[in-house]
Amino acid sequence: MSVIELNNINKYFGSGVSKVHVLHDINFSADRGELILVVGPSGSGKSTFLTIAGGLQTPTSGEVSVEGKSMAKLSTAQRDKLRLNQIGFVLQSYSLVPYLKVKEQFDFVNKVKRQGNLNQAELKELLVQLGIENLTNKFPGELSGGQTQRVAIARALFANPDIVLADEPTAALDSARVAEVGKLFKELAKTRDKAVVVVTHDVRLMEFADKTYQIMDGKMTQATNKQPAK
């Protein structure tokens, strides 16, 4: 059984003459141990797909299931608990708490999610992998865009979720850092048995993916990893 499935997902925004069909009959699944890319240009529906997959917004029609449980059949409290314990988000907005130092971002996670997070040795290893081990006493406002992005990735992975959903996680990174993040996500999927789903227009990540899907005008098709998606 796939850890996450989307079945016949449609999403509309607006109504009447301004009604827009953003996602068209999306079918998607991810298993543990997989790194999956969803590639496409800006405005193609990537971010909408990701937020629906993570239960941050609801589809107009269709069903999202995590570990065989339909999100639509869960109460609000149950959906919140599922997201907290099983889904890690790396969003474009980063969502770091501006008045907390980098090291305090992880303390904050521990207060919200009290069990199942990485231990201190594992966190230290993760910070070294991402090249941010010397930034722990800095505030988000003191970081560059690339540094902020890597801290956001570390915070999401610190919670040790079953599913990692990342929205353009390499947008502010140079090629060397892109390769490091690609390897990290790949290792996370394989060694920690996670499902990692990355939506991106960065074709440099394709060499690390087990599967690549292309989304264009809200329609999804499986792509080859041998040639970059256009």
TrEMBL record:
<keyword id="KW-0472">Membrane</keyword>
<dbReference type="GO" id="GO:0005886">
    <property type="term" value="C:plasma membrane"/>
</dbReference>
<dbReference type="InterPro" id="IPR003439">
    <property type="entry name" value="ABC_transporter-like_ATP-bd"/>
</dbReference>
<keyword id="KW-0067">ATP-binding</keyword>
<dbReference type="Pfam" id="PF00005">
    <property type="entry name" value="ABC_tran"/>
</dbReference>
<protein>
    <recommendedName>
        <fullName>Putative hemin import ATP-binding protein HrtA</fullName>
    </recommendedName>
</protein>
<keyword id="KW-0547">Nucleotide-binding</keyword>
<dbReference type="GO" id="GO:0022857">
    <property type="term" value="F:transmembrane transporter activity"/>
</dbReference>
<dbReference type="InterPro" id="IPR027417">
    <property type="entry name" value="P-loop_NTPase"/>
</dbReference>
<dbReference type="InterPro" id="IPR003593">
    <property type="entry name" value="AAA+_ATPase"/>
</dbReference>
<dbReference type="InterPro" id="IPR017911">
    <property type="entry name" value="MacB-like_ATP-bd"/>
</dbReference>
<comment type="subunit">
    <text>The complex is composed of two ATP-binding proteins (HrtA), two transmembrane proteins (HrtB) and a solute-binding protein.</text>
</comment>
<feature type="domain" description="ABC transporter">
    <location>
        <begin position="4"/>
        <end position="229"/>
    </location>
</feature>
<dbReference type="GO" id="GO:0005524">
    <property type="term" value="F:ATP binding"/>
</dbReference>
<keyword id="KW-1003">Cell membrane</keyword>
<comment type="similarity">
    <text>Belongs to the ABC transporter superfamily. HrtA family.</text>
</comment>
<dbReference type="InterPro" id="IPR015854">
    <property type="entry name" value="ABC_transpr_LolD-like"/>
</dbReference>
<dbReference type="GO" id="GO:0016887">
    <property type="term" value="F:ATP hydrolysis activity"/>
</dbReference>
<keyword id="KW-0813">Transport</keyword>
<comment type="function">
    <text>Part of the ABC transporter complex hrt involved in hemin import. Responsible for energy coupling to the transport system.</text>
</comment>
